[in-house]
Design goal:
heterodimer; A: alpha+beta; Beta-Lactamase; Immunoglobulin-like; nine-stranded mixed sheet; 8 helices; 18% helix; globular; B: mainly alpha; two-stranded parallel ribbon; 2 strands; elongated; disordered N terminus; MHD (chain A); membrane (chain A); transport (chain A)
């Protein structure tokens, strides 16, 4: 089981340590770890499980913070990784986001949370709604209160009722004046688009890519503000399109197995009811057509972006990002719409926002290759981001949401959003 | 003009805004924990001041300072009525209890008082802290406390009792071992799933081989499994699996036993073919290597950790458990029940649970049902970057044994630029082991893109994967070799091959791949060999030259044309001998010795 958890800042300094068992882990192990990060670079930082001379180390990196957990005994590696992910989720939920200063400013809460989340190296309470009842998240009111009164307790005096009930994810005595439930379909589109190259480099025209793979990773997120102990059933109009599913522990397996109906007693507040995947989609909402031609040590780049299949709603927050190949010395890029930024680490970002009605956004420019290199042989991959409110591109439709044990006055809301996930266009 | 001033004003305004933001947080405590007299604050009458002192101590702990000298003063505060003070005292106490055992003893009375508190949270905290002190002297007291809490009306307290047991067990006191195991048994029998999960964790670390405790509750445990908390599920699944293997042996319809059978009879055939053959016969052939079966089942029974650390198998207690035993999944209710109760867990939102459940099916499930683990396994690839790597490692093992399972899902292993290098490499390996004639063309199209990736290490790995694909699908060998030769020609056009940015590795790997393809059937690839000989003059990288020169010697008698051009090649080698690298010189000598031997 886990013996110690360290949180490291992006310069390798230990922000805090939490010893979990009697086998203390000296923080010198973090020095060992960071020495290797420096000597081996990024490939070491992307190793989730590392064998140090004394311990196994699990690591995840979130928003620049490295979470390390050490153990000396055999355990399922995914258990350590999943737990660290859960810790990171809960901390960023409590603190609003994750960064070194926020963790330092709220270190007492972080300690108290870790203490409730893990006992003797074994996870204890990881349900966010229960933790919120045990340890109050920092908020403006409590901050002001602590300034005024000098009293800053954020530890609850009583044990959340849910820890004792047969539905451990739900408090027993929830009361709302207005009963509301919101169901959101939050989808991410993963796509690989391949430009048909082979000699196309010689032709000065934009080639449309081939869709290698296009699928939706979606989540059903529910915000449940209901009194008492409600029992909900949610059904879809077209459940057959779902290729894979995973559920929150509150979902009963039987009704899904027999009728593809989600039957559950929900946690209180916001939670992820289900995640799903819809495979083999046929088209994407936007197109990105990159073209790179190189000759005599310079490379001309031009990228065009436009709407391919109008989803019926506005596509916004379009951002294109790509890493310039290491052999490129300098780049001079301009666009007819949006802003272009090239960072020192050769990451280039083109923020487009919305596509204007009157013109197709395009980026163009020239790049200077390394001396001695005539033409470009390696090609960047373009990562695309976008967001479409009000549409679930998978086509999944909610049929109905039925509630039992709920008062009559009730508001049900349904929303959808699709974002780009691992959406990339190869040039 | 004054960049430094601009910089200062910027940092100033930044500092000011963060100051506003930080008001009311504990920021000042972390930044300057020692700017007041902590000792005096600890003695204060006011809870708020005590709190502040304790927070300052915690900040010092976080920053790696030793503040154990405050121990006596902190311990006194354990009696505080404020829950916040209590919580902070516990955090401090547990960090240092081992360093200051005698002073820690002072707090025992207080804990015992708290154990009788009407508030379950107070009882639970007291138990956690008390067990966390880990002192031999107080272990009888802790044992009594745990025993009492194991029957507490509050689920949370019983859960904490289960978590306290391993702490007690770690003191390694023989006289209380049986008492501890008895409490584990009681908690495993609890009707609340939360407690059972924690009890499973206790079982796994205290008495992983005490299968009588599991046997008593087996049906209950299986039925309660879907309701247990995710973390408990991971361990409980493993325990139940080991119990079933220990009490019934391996399942003879399973993949696991057919794999053992194949390995022992040294069959070279694809596992799947043999499976089909077995199904036709109805009765699997009894060619199991009993030693191998013993080995495998034993490693499941004892748990991997213990199995690996123990050198010889002289464990008398277990000797009666094994002995090449098999059971039938069709008739054995325990096996059926375990498979049934782990099936829904393949939908869990915790990827560790999914993987554990998939493991049970891999070992227990009849071959025709094994398919059901494939989609869940592929779906958990999307959960997080870190878990992706571990899941891929597992899929690689599954795919090597049963490639056909993953054949239709090859697209899931296409590389995305956000994957880590390790994940990319694993995906390539998996792809090359599951590729079939129907998927090879799309896979090769993908590979063409990977070769153009700016990460040249990954491009070299892709070239290696092409070689593996050709070995797996001999029909594709010609296409692969042509592609690789084209790549070599392109590489040679690139002038920066020696600049050390990985281009040389791509070239070397292409020749390694070609070499391994030629090795399959040299006579078919005569033209390729000749092309390589001809390219010798333009290939400058010594490692690559060495391999081609080796081929000169190895294939000097292949076909008609090669023997005829041999003298020219050898002349060329002699001519450039002086300017070669040492390794190339050695290989030239080696080759010249080899060649005449064929012709004399």
């Amino acid at each position: 089981m886990l013996q110690c958890i360290f949180l490291l800042a992006d310069n390798g300094a230990v922000i805090l340590e939490k010893q979990l068992t009697g086998h203390r882990v000296d923080r010198s192990i973090c020095d060992w770890f960071w020495d290797h990060v420096i000597s081996q670079g990024d490939s070491f930082k992307s190793m989730p499980v590392i064998a140090s001379p004394t311990h196994y180390i699990f690591q995840i990196v979130r928003a620049g913070i490295t979470f390390l957990a050490c153990t000396q005994v055999e355990m399922p590696p995914l258990m350590g990784i999943e737990f660290l992910c859960r810790v990171a989720d809960i901390l960023s939920d409590y603190l609003g986001e994750l960064n070194e200063d926020l963790i330092k400013d709220n270190f007492v809460i972080v300690y108290e949370l870790l203490d409730e989340m893990i006992d003797n190296g074994f996870p204890l309470t990881t349900e966010p709604n229960i933790l919120r009842e045990m340890i109050a998240p920092p908020n403006i009111v409590s901050k002001m209160l602590s300034v005024v009164t000098g009293n800053s307790s954020n530890v609850s005096d009583i044990l959340p009722g849910a820890t004792a009930s047969c539905v451990p994810w739900r408090p027993t005595d929830v009361k709302y004046a207005n009963n509301e439930v919101y169901v959101d379909l939050v989808e991410e589109m993963d796509a690989i688009i391949n430009s048909t190259k082979q000699f196309s480099l010689l032709h000065a025209r934009f080639r449309d890519g081939v869709l290698v793979k296009c699928e939706i990773y979606g989540e059903v997120q529910v915000n449940c503000l209901l009194s008492g102990l409600p029992d909900l059933t949610l059904s879809f109009a077209n459940p057959s399109i779902l290729h894979d599913v995973r559920f929150h522990p509150c979902v009963r397996f039987r009704p899904w197995e027999s009728h593809q109906i989600l039957s559950f007693v929900p946690p209180d507040g916001q939670f992820k009811l289900m995640s799903y995947r819809v495979k083999k989609l046929k088209s994407t909402p936007i197109y990105v057509k990159p073209q790179l031609t190189s000759d005599a040590g310079t490379c001309r780049i031009s990228v065009m972006v436009g709407i391919r299949n109008d989803p019926g709603k506005t596509i916004d927050s379009i951002i294109l990002q790509f890493q310039l190949p290491p052999c490129i010395l300098s780049a001079d890029l301009t666009s007819n719409h949006g802003t272009v930024n090239v960072l020192s680490n050769k990451i280039c970002t083109w923020s487009i926002g919305r596509i204007p009605k009157d013109k197709a956004p395009s980026l163009s420019g020239t790049m200077v290759l390394e001396t001695g290199l005539e033409t470009l042989r390696v090609f960047p991959t373009f990562q695309v981001e976008f967001r479409i409110m009000g549409v679930a591109l998978s086509g999944l439709q909610i049929d109905k949401l039925d509630l039992q044990n709920v008062p009559n006055r009730l508001y049900k809301g349904f929303r959808a959003v699709t974002r780009a996930g691992e959406y990339e266009v190869r040039s | 003009m004054f960049p430094q001033f601009a910089g200062t004003s910027e940092t100033l305004s930044k500092a000011a805004s963060s100051l506003v933001f930080r008001i009311g947080t504990d920021a000042h405590l972390y930044d300057d924990p020692e700017d007041v007299n902590i000792g005096a604050l600890l003695e204060s009458r006011f809870d708020s001041e005590k709190c502040e002192a304790l927070k300052r101590l915690l900040a010092l702990i976080a920053q790696g300072f030793d503040v154990s000298n405050f121990f006596p003063q902190v311990v006194k505060n354990v009696a505080s009525q404020s829950l916040e003070v209590k919580k902070l005292v516990y955090l401090y106490l547990l960090h240092y209890a081992e360093k200051r055992p005698n002073e820690a003893l002072l707090s025992i009375n207080c804990f015992q008082k708290d154990l009788g508190d009407p508030n379950p949270l107070v009882r639970a905290w007291a138990l956690r802290a008390m067990a966390g002190i880990r002192l031999h002297v107080i272990s009888p007291l802790v044992l009594v406390a745990v025993g009492k809490c194991a029957r507490d009306p509050s689920v949370f307290v019983r859960k904490c009792a289960a978590n306290a047991l391993p702490k007690l067990h770690e003191l390694r006191q023989e006289e209380i071992t049986s008492a501890i195991e008895e409490i584990v048994g009681i908690l495993l029998n609890d009707r609340s799933p939360g407690v059972v999960g924690a009890a499973a964790a206790a079982f796994a670390s205290i008495c992983p081989n005490n299968f009588t405790l599991i046997g008593r509750n087996y049906r209950n445990l299986c039925q309660i499994l879907p309701d247990v908390e995710e973390w408990g599920q991971i361990l409980l699944i493993e325990i139940l699996l080991r119990y079933v293997v220990a009490s019934h042996g391996l399942v003879k319809e399973s993949i696991m036993s057919s794999l053992l059978c194949i390995e022992s009879s040294h069959s070279e055939k694809d596992v799947f073919d043999v499976n089909v053959a077995l199904e036709d016969n109805g009765i699997p052939s009894r060619t199991y290597d009993s030693e191998l079966v013993n080995l495998v089942s034993r490693s499941y029974i004892e748990g991997l950790g213990e199995y690996l650390t123990r050198s010889s198998d002289t464990n008398a207690r277990l000797s009666d458990l094994n002995g090449a035993r098999f059971t039938s999944g069709q008739t054995n209710d325990d096996v059926k029940l375990l498979l049934q109760c782990t099936s829904p867990l393949l939908w869990s939102h915790n990827s560790a649970v999914v993987l554990a459940a998939a493991g049970v099916h891999w070992i227990m499930s009849p071959k025709e049902d094994i398919k059901r683990i494939v989609k869940p396994l592929l779906f958990i690839l999307r959960s997080s970057g870190a878990s992706k790597y571990v899941v891929l490692c597992n899929i690689q093992v599954f795919a090597k044994a049963l490639p056909h399972l993953f054949v239709p899902h090859y697209e899931d292993f296409f590389v995305s630029s956000s994957d880590s290098y390790q994940s990319k490499a694993l995906k390539l390996e998996i792809l090359s082991s599951i590729v079939t004639e129907s998927s090879i063309s799309s896979v090769f199209k993908e590979f063409q893109d990977y070769i153009r990736d700016p990460d040249r290490r990954f491009a070299a790995d892709t070239v290696a994967a092409i070689g593996l694909c050709a070995r797996r699908l001999p029909k594709m060998a010609n296409t692969c070799v042509e592609g690789l030769l084209a790549l070599i020609r392109q590489e040679l056009l690139t002038s920066d091959i020696e600049s050390g940015n990985g281009e040389a590795d791509v070239l070397i790997q292409s020749i390694i791949s070609i070499k391994s393809i030629i090795k399959q059937d040299p006579s078919c690839h005569e033209k390729v060999i000749i092309q390589l000989f001809r390219s010798l003059d333009s290939i400058k990288v010594p490692e690559a030259r060495v391999m081609i020169i080796w081929m000169v010697g190895e294939y000097s008698s292949v076909g008609v044309k090669i023997p005829r051009m041999l003298t020219t090649v050898l002349k060329y080698l002699a001519w450039c001998f002086k300017s070669e690298a040492v390794e190339t010189k050695l290989q030239i000598l080696n080759t010249t010795i080899k060649c005449p031997c064929f012709h004399i």
